[in-house]
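input
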Amino acid sequence: MKKIILTMTAALSLLACTNRQNPFLTEWDTPYGIPPFGDIHSEDYIPAIEAGIEQQSREIEAIVENTEEPTFENTILPLELAGGILDRVEGVLRNLIETDRTPELDSVMEKAIPMLTEHRDNIFFNKGLYERIAKLYKADQSQLTREQQMVLKKHFETFERNGVGLTQDKQIRLREINTELATKTQKLGNNIQSENNAFRNKFGISISDYPNAMTTTEDRALRQEMLEAYTMRGHNGNEFDNRQLVLDIMRLRIEKAHIMGYKNPAAYILEPKMAHDTETVDAFLSSIMVAAVAKAKEEVTDMQKLMNIDVANGKLPAGSKIEPWDWWYYAEKVRKQKYDLNEELTKPYFRLDNVVKGIFIAANKLYGVNIEELTDVPSYNANVVTTYKVTDADDNLLGIFTTDYLPRPSKRGGAWMNNIRNQYTDAQGNAVRPIIVNVANLEEHLTIDEVQTVFHEFGHALHGLLSQCNYPSVSGTNVTRDFVETFSQFNENWAFQPELLAQYAKNENGEVIPAELVNKINNSLKFNQGFMTTELCAASILDMKWHELESIDGIDIDAFEKQVCKQMGLIHEIGPRYRTTYFNHIFSSGYSAGYYGYLWAEVLDKDAFSVFEASGNVWNKELATKFKQTFLEKGGSEEPMVLYVQFAGRQPDNTAFLKGRGLK
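output
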């Protein structure tokens, strides 16, 4: 204990010598407790992490040394609230490393990852702490609320699944594995970002704009060049090549699964999820894949007919067939032919600012949420970031919402939601409201898919903002991976509702999108779903097959991918949405053996939306309130399927999912 106090004192003294105090080590006297980004320097992170580790270690030591019988109040509650400094540091650092990455932040992460990994292992291997949790878990829980029971269960299972019961030699090896994995997954993600920037430099477009470029580029040779560059990211034999990293990560994950008593990583990862086991996931994906490929083959036939016209007109050589680099381009031609829909005509109505207004209008109509832009508040990038105050119908603060939509080289590709601060109740009984960030890589005028992306990420944000839990470990989006996407995808269902489009889809002259275009958009939503479902399902299967391996001895990445694609029945014209070396979700972002969750959750989201449709009014306020109270306010405070049955009054049915994907 003396060593801990002396070390923290030394850290604080060092800062005092520079006449400034580390902002992470003080309470933030800022509007709504927003981090004082302008006061934070790169040299603040490591001293703050050291101080945070010491703080949380003392807090845990106090729990363990408590001589009273373990109760929720003297064991679980202080454990839930422990680590306040680390929460502040990581909330900022993990957001900035993905949005405004710099060499200085890379250096911070390089030092921080081993420190934080060792600290977490120290917690999970703390037998005194585990024994208090286990004793409480195995005792009568009837006096606990259901939320408290779920929190207790989560802590007990987390300790069990992180090796508290292992022998000392196995724990020593597990520590080494955890540190190596944390370092290598971060490195892999950084490599992908570097490869994305190389793609941008070569073609003049962000990686997120790749589908648009493939749709509009008439030059077939250029399309082929772009596709090959896109699909070879992390596979170019340069300093950013991820092939060995992937094999290293998989070797470590397999060894960890074996140490924990599982035959492969997928079995270990899936056990606490809704799907629970590999057999369930494999059967689920296989059934979708068969129907999706059949639909995709029909789409190939339609595209080939239009390509044949280009051949007859001398635009292409005789015998030309649809290749992977032709799909986006000819799919758009088919859409124009079948639905008379040209996205160049819809984009002027989907200006980014207007679409953001659309998500806010929908949230107000459904959940009574009011959103007001804030000015003169701290921001990590004032040029591109906008901050909002979110309140309920009674003007109670729900949280702070920040948007960061524009691309830049310092930002990783894709779109996501982050928590800078979780929602919970503090030790004094005060409500702590969340700070939520939506991040994307978008241009000023959006495609139909990009409009859905904005609604999707705001669905995650609503899950965080509307949370009404007491404990941070189960609040907001702290639910299983195969449940969390339910609410993001559910929010997409309102994007193109005619009543909403009339309010937000306006061009620069303020003219509302014509009803004719609205009808064409909605009629075309099932278009190209053979391709979209096949590439998504293929990536999910590739993820599963990697994590069902029991050894990587003799594995060649290219040969493995080829074998898996052949076994799943993937057609030549389509590849998985992600190839292995740039599959950031599963190798660097927590979706390992979990990418299936998008499709799994879509069954739930489409079935839940069918309940609204069956009511005759998709804006049914009573149903929306029930959805909010059952799901969005509850976080992980109840089992997912219990919540679903409470809402729908029955088990989920996949009919709406299959119809939505055009597979039935």
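quick obs: Residues 215 and 329 are 4 Å apart (CA to CA).
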